[in-house]
Amino acid sequence: MTEAFPRHATALETLQKRGRFRQLMPRAGHDFASNDYLGLAASDVLKQAAADALARGVAVGAGGSRLLRGNDVEHGLLEQEAAAFFGTEAALFMGGGFNANQAIFSTLPQQGDLVLYDALIHASTHDGMRLGRAEARRFAHNDVQDATAQIADWRASGGEGRIWIAIEAVYSMEGTLGPVAEMAVLAEATGAVLVVDEAHATGVFGDLGRGLAHDIAHRPQVLTLHTCGKGLGVSGALICGAQILIDTLINRARGFIFATAPSPLNAALVRAALQDLAQSPKRQHQAWDKINHAHAEAARLCGLKGFQSQILPVILGEDQCTMQVAQALQGQGFDIRGIRPPTVPRGTSRLRISLTGSLTMRVITAMFEALVGELEALK
């Protein structure tokens, strides 16, 4: 069929030559690739929760949008429990983190406002800003001083609206932690709203896995996003914040209004995952045992240091080289994926090592032993 779509075929051939062609792969080997940080996705906890929910008559499908007949009691219970767990006035359950970020940034910032975003913010935030009416400016990654200077410059140039500061708690490709506390101080000093994407922090960071912004989440000018398909092991996303912002999303966010509601069964499973976090801190503690072990082994075996989280990027730079190393490790039974532009900036292609709940200390050590061999072969 390539002759029917020659421009598409040419574009794909270019990607192949650059080592950037993507294709779906089956699951195989030890999981160093997913975001199942606590091992909940295939856990007995969620299997039993699914069986219990089906037994009590929870529907598999919603049948329509939340504003029509798709609104189920499970959605409402989840939102009440999530708001209580994360310490906010209200919560809204959506189908996924990408859709949720699109909804936030296309709906809440108004014309005349400014969205000030971290240079490494997720693609979903960029898409939301493109659909929105506010001006957008970026600041250097995790640089509070640059963010402060950008605000001062915008005000000096006549900007009079509200400022919305967009950061992540844990950056998905760098594994770096966002300066949440410092940004909260800046937001309060400038009257800005701080939007913290907790996607890769939920379940791993904070008291009972509530995230890095948990201590400030109750403030009316703080909005947090907790995705449900990573540490929580299910799917969907929870936007948590002031009731007026949640009501605005319900009434104005096209990605909420016109989308079929998430499965009620899925909502029941997210409820079970949150209950497990609240009742089983052991799961979070085990995750940190593995994280600390991996950081130590990365330094001991490979000389790699400076990691801050469960995400360990090994930057190799060149696309083809990155994919060759990833494939070599996959061949040894370690499912590690190569990450290339446009997901990361040009010249920073990398292995993204993710520490998941299914891994053991022995497997983590064995992976770094294999990695050091591949890195040596590149020299």
In short:
With 379 residues, this protein is an alpha/beta fold. Helices cover 44% and strands 15% of the residues. Helix 5 (123-131) links the parallel strand 3 (114-118) and strand 4.
Topology:
Blueprint lengths: L5 H13 L11 E2 L12 H12 L17 H14 L3 E5 L2 H11 L6 E5 L4 H9 L3 E5 L4 H13 L6 E6 L11 H11 L2 E5 L24 E6 L9 E5 L1 H10 L1 H4 L6 H16 L1 H22 L8 E7 L1 H13 L2 E2 L1 E3 L9 E6 L6 H18 L1
Parallel strand pairs: 1-10, 3-4, 3-5, 5-6, 6-7
Antiparallel strand pairs: 2-8, 7-8, 9-12, 11-12
Helix pairs in contact: 2-10, 3-10, 4-5, 11-13, 12-13
Can you describe what's shown?
- With 379 residues, this protein is α/β, with parallel strands linked by helices.
- It has helices at residues 6-18, 44-55, 73-86, 97-107, 123-131, 144-156, 180-190, 243-252, 254-257, 264-279, 281-302, 319-331, 361-378; strands at 30-31, 90-94, 114-118, 135-139, 163-168, 193-197, 222-227, 237-241, 311-317, 334-335, 337-339, 349-354.
- Strands 2-8-7-6-5-3-4 form a seven-stranded mixed sheet, sandwiched between helices. Strands 9-12-11 form a three-stranded antiparallel sheet, covered by helices on one side.
- Strand 3 (114-118), helix 5 and strand 4 (135-139) form a beta-alpha-beta unit.
- The two termini are 42 Å apart.
- The mean pLDDT is 96.
